[in-house]
Design goal:
Layout: E1 2-3, H1 8-19, E2 26-28, H2 32-41, E3 45-47, H3 53-67, E4 72-75, H4 91-119, E5 124-128, H5 141-161, E6 167-173, H6 179-184, H7 190-196, H8 207-218, E7 229-232
Parallel strand pairs: 1-2, 2-3, 4-5, 5-6, 6-7
Helix pairs in contact: 1-8, 3-4, 4-5
Length: 239
């Protein structure tokens, strides 16, 4: 089950898990974008607002009934576009970021974890976080504090769900080179060069690499790893 499954990173996640032999259900807001992603990836979809706990719980029950027990959850849904500095950011924008990135992630985690415990699945949860939770960028504070909270939720859920055999980890990318990113920061542009100057490997994260990290953390190869937030950032946190 992949939330934010209709977005750029969500599609890479779905393809990576499908390549590993998993059946994938895409979860996102209902609409043409989700329908198109489901058709393109030949994957079932569930259109829900993750900030609605009742809708989330009902969707989890429906997915499990129709497709079988959920073994892996990837919490990828989030919003990034509401920016502003500490003096001018509207409180309503900050609240919207918190509702989706923190409360939405929690609602889905809670519902899927309860399902896993109920059916005895020793599953895995992978949250898509950000190195921004540990390294600030001016103007992006609302997003970055929300991702710091996602990292804290990861550790919280990991310690409490370990007794049930459920592992909880996070992938923390730096800037991800999605098609939208490439449109906004084309090769050679001053903004792109400014970002690359912060990254020791001088490259933005490939979304396929972010997806590969998520697949690893969900796999048996990471059976003794829980509570970790794994940077995929070209060494940006070192700078």
């Amino acid at each position: 089950m992949i939330t934010g499954g209709a977005g750029g990173i969500g599609r890479f996640l779905a393809e990576a898990f499908q390549s590993a032999g998993d059946r994938v259900v895409l979860v996102d807001l209902p609409g043409e974008k989700l329908d198109a992603a489901g058709a393109e990836l030949n994957a079932p979809t569930a259109g829900i607002d993750i900030t609605d706990p009742q809708a989330v719980a009902a969707a989890v029950a429906d997915i499990a009934h129709e497709h079988g027990p959920i073994g892996v959850l990837v919490n990828n849904a989030g919003i990034l576009h509401l920016h502003g500095d500490v003096l001018t950011l509207p409180v309503a924008d900050y609240e919207s970021t918190i509702r989706v990135n923190i409360l939405g992630t929690f609602a889905v985690t809670q519902a899927v974890a309860a399902h896993m415990v109920g059916v005895g699945t020793r599953g895995a949860i992978v949250n898509i976080s950000s190195i921004g939770g540990r390294q600030p960028t001016p103007g992006m504070g609302a997003y970055e504090t929300s991702k710091a909270a996602v990292d804290a939720q990861t550790r919280w859920a990991a310690i409490e769900l370990a007794a049930h055999g459920i592992r909880v980890n996070a992938v923390a990318p730096g800037p991800v080179d999605t098609p939208m990113m490439k449109m906004g920061m084309p090769d050679g542009s001053p903004m792109r060069e400014a970002w690359l100057a912060r990254i020791p490997l001088r490259q933005m994260a490939d979304p396929a690499q972010v997806a590969a990290a998520a697949v690893f953390l969900a796999s048996d190869g990471a059976a003794d790893i829980t509570g970790v937030s794994l940077p995929v950032d070209g060494g940006q946190l070192l700078a």
